[in-house]
Write a structure and sequence with these properties.
single chain, 177 residues, mainly beta, OB fold (Dihydrolipoamide Acetyltransferase, E2P), six-stranded mixed sheet, five-stranded mixed sheet, 3 helices, globular
Length: 177
């Protein structure tokens, strides 16, 4: 069973940059884990572009509630999403601390998106066999962005596919193609 780091130190880019993104199969895949409102989420390490210190976010007029605004990273504007709100899990109480995890969801479009995390925990290797499917319930619940649930050191980890979570066939207010 993989081991989850629980110490307060956060990952530096050097610790996760070389972890690889692998191909699904018998070999364990590597995931970046992060904490948000007491829950642990994991995403494939290959989708993570960088991890930034929390910085001021410029608000956007008429933006949806889960779009916090934009940040400037080396001359590139990056949208920052409130993942809790986007997942329907409420809103954070405060944002004085944390990290911004920047993801590249589509290698072709190179459109990064940032998500605020309370803490970035570790890079873990999890085999497909250790991932249970997303729960099936009788209630209406769209679990399309959740690829499954893993247990690491007795903790549940929600496995996310952010490309599915943020995928939209409709043009957004900032899509000018």
């Amino acid at each position: 069973m993989p081991e989850l780091q629980s110490e307060a130190s956060e990952l530096s880019p050097d610790q996760w940059a070389d972890a690889g993104d692998g191909v699904r199969g018998a070999e364990p895949q590597t995931y970046v884990t992060f904490e948000l409102a007491g829950q642990i989420f994991a995403v494939e390490v290959g989708t993570v572009r960088e991890i930034l210190d929390l910085q001021p976010i410029s608000c956007l007029p008429n933006a949806p509630a889960d779009l916090l605004g934009m940040i400037d990273v080396r001359g590139q504007g990056i949208a920052v999403i409130d993942l809790l709100s986007h997942l329907g899990l409420g809103h954070p109480l405060s944002r004085e601390e944390g990290r911004i995890v920047v993801f590249e969801l589509d290698a072709d479009s190179r459109k990064p998106v940032g998500v605020i995390a309370d803490r970035v925990l570790s890079v873990v290797a999890i085999a497909d066999a250790e991932i249970e499917p997303a729960p099936v319930t009788m209630v209406r619940w769209n679990a399309a962005a959740m690829t499954g649930v893993a247990r690491v050191d007795g903790q549940l980890i929600m496995m996310l596919a952010l490309d599915r979570l943020f995928k939209s066939d409709a043009a957004g207010p900032f899509d000018f193609d």
